[in-house]
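Journal club prep, shared notes

We agreed each person brings one worked example of a sequence with its structure written out as tokens. Mine is Tyrosine--tRNA ligase. I'm keeping it raw so we can talk through how to read the token line rather than staring at a rendered picture. Sequence first:
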Amino acid sequence: MTYHPKSDFIAIMMERGFLADCTDYQGLDEALLVPGQPAYIGYDATAASLHVGHLLNIMMLRWFQKCGHKPLTLMGGGTTKVGDPSFRSEERPLLSPQQIDDNIAQIKQVFAKYLTYGDGPSDALMLNNSEWLDSLNYLDFLRDIGRHFSINRMLSFESVKSRLDREQSLSFLEFNYMILQAYDFLELNRRYGCILQMGGSDQWGNIVNGIDLTRRVLDHEIFGLTSPLLATSDGRKMGKSQGGAIWLNADMLSPYAFWQFWRNTTDADVGRFLKLYTEMPIAECDRLGALAGSEINDAKIVLANAVTTLCHGAEAAAAAEATAREVFEKGGIGDDLPTLDLSADEIGAGISIVQLIVRSGLAKTGKEAKRLIAENGARLDDAPLTDAGLMLDAAALASPVKLSAGKKRHALVKLAG
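Then the structure, token by token:
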């Protein structure tokens, strides 16, 4: 698409690779020439932390604020009670109101690192859709809002169609989700003058619903903008690793493990990720991304430091890099490695190496740990580990031992006390 934007925000989104689609590029671009415009992204509170898969959209909100506009972070205290069915093969487990509130409290801590909240014209607002959804009267809602939705059209959306085509159950509860999300956009426009909803490209249908509903009910023109659903160059879903989700909260994933995830970026992704997940100038992102051989590893450290600094602070990034250097370059132990503390009671007469590999998070199951050993992928204190039947007693763990899975994943095991 050859469109030359006038607003700073659209220009940044286009040149850094954030844009998948927009309902009206020109209309939105013109609207964003006026500072202080509100835009929102919604986040359901299905876990106690967001993960790296959410980071692309958090960076969009951050750039939106840096361009002089007002980000609205909408917590789905209401919609989490229903669950978004988009491109899922089964219904989400329903959470209790207390679980949802606890998750929201945890998630809020992440946003505070990326956005400035307050009462100023470009200060972010933290909102919760339970404010208007919890008190809805069902009959009034059906009459005033439900009449604007065509079942035929809702059935045509890809997120619904894919579920029905595979003959997987879609409950009426989930089917209502897209109506509630559309209603969120209407309420945010009515209450806060919000003109834009952003989200991943899987949210396109839900976003368009909100725009249509707001036009029908309030006769206001609003916009939608989506980002690409990222996969790494080797085909993995962004934000997932062999060990599971890459969480943004430090108490769910250590800053060291977070740093290490970015340090392990595939060579082909370095330039693209620098543009999306850091604020470094485009020319520098391109220069670093074009490095070859061992030099690309320096670029990966720049990427890991920049992303970790934004999420966990400069000190955590520096500590992670120092630990990595100690572990990889000097063969040392490193203070910041994930650590498994064992009591003497737990060890008893001895504890198997397979159990230690699983409990330290280097393998998910005993079977996986045994396979790791059989394929020569496991090391004990940097020496090849070949005996899956090895037992360690308290004396062997009197000083910390280092377990490794491959070249990049390490953990310490030590006696507590």
